[in-house]
Write a structure and sequence with these properties.
The structure is a single chain. By secondary structure, the protein is an all-alpha fold. It has a single domain, classed as Cytochrome Bc1 Complex, Chain D, domain 2 (Orthogonal Bundle), CATH 1.10.760.10. It has 7 helices and no strands. The protein has helices at residues 2-27, 37-40, 50-63, 65-68, 89-95, 98-107, 127-140. Helix 3 (50-63) crosses helix 7 and helix 6 crosses helix 7 (127-140). The longest helix has 26 residues, at 2-27. The N and C termini lie far apart (59 Å). Residues 32, 63-64, 66-68, 78-79, 82, 84-87, 92, 96, 101, 104-105, 109, 114, 116-119, 121, 133 line the site of heme C (HEC).
Length: 142
Amino acid sequence: MKKTIFFLTVILVLSAILLSACGGSAAKTSTRPEPPSEYANKTNPFAGKTDASDAGKTVYEANCASCHGTGGAGDGPAGAALDPKPADLKKTVAEASEAYMFWRISEGGGMSPFNSSMPSWKGTLSENDIWNVITYMEMNFK
Ligand code: HEC
């Protein structure tokens, strides 16, 4: 009898540990950090708009394709030697929020935890052009 209770307790404790471990990882859809508060509530004002996507295509091909590749897969020629490598933007579009993308394109990778050669674009591209390129990514990188 004592043995049975002991084993039941062990099984209960083990399944509790297993359940909490599974629950923890299942709840996480992305390992990306949250954008800082000044970016947290941003949403794409041009979402789904073809003219914004067309303008974004020009921005993308001039500034991003060299590293991220024409199709966004992270396989551009200028990115081959980089560590970390350029992100697969199809994954980014599928997994990350618009606020996250706007933040990362604006601020780049010259900060923790990224420490990458992703350039900061906020001094080069207007806010509208950053949203245009996000619209292009959303409508084409699937
Ligand atoms: C010099 C190469 C280079 C260029 C040019 C470049 N990137 Fe990046 N980018 C990177 C690298 C490397 C990473 C991965 C490391 C990181 O997240 O900082 C990255 C990451 C990103 C991310 C975050 C992806 C994620 O899933 O977390 C986004 C969004 C992004 N780039 C968009 C762009 C856009 C849009 C442009 C053009 C305006 C651009 N990048 C131009 C190198 C580049």
